[in-house]
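Hi support team,

I'm filing this because I wasn't sure whether my run with zinc ion finished correctly. The job status page said complete, but I'd like someone to confirm that the output block is well-formed before I use it downstream. Pasting the exact inputs I used:
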Amino acid sequence: MANPNPVLAGLRSRCGTCGEGKLFSRYLVFKDNCDVCGQDFSVADTADGPAFFAGFATLILLAPFYFMLPMMELPLWQTILGYLMIIAATFGLCLAMLPPLKGMLFNLQIRHKAEEAKFEDIGSP
Ligand SMILES: [Zn+2]
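And here is everything the job wrote out:
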């Protein structure tokens, strides 16, 4: 597949250059390069971008439950059980969203040749 959509390929944890090679060797750890097309995976770094988006999406999805639970006047054991379920959902959602979001941001960085700002063109006064 030539020139795949970097967002869709990333969400499937596939290489954004060929759309077929796997991005990760294990959970959240990139391979050195693509097995199919040889794309170097050391040229980009997503840093904490995926964690921000995963946390933000989880907050939006689960915040209503965190607010509604104390207002429901449930017995204590049901309130505690409710909080445990919401906390488990919070961790589960974050951990499930991290690989596809990391793959997507990584593929977008490679596609758009994103890199740190370089200021060597700015002359000294
Ligand atoms: Zn590839």
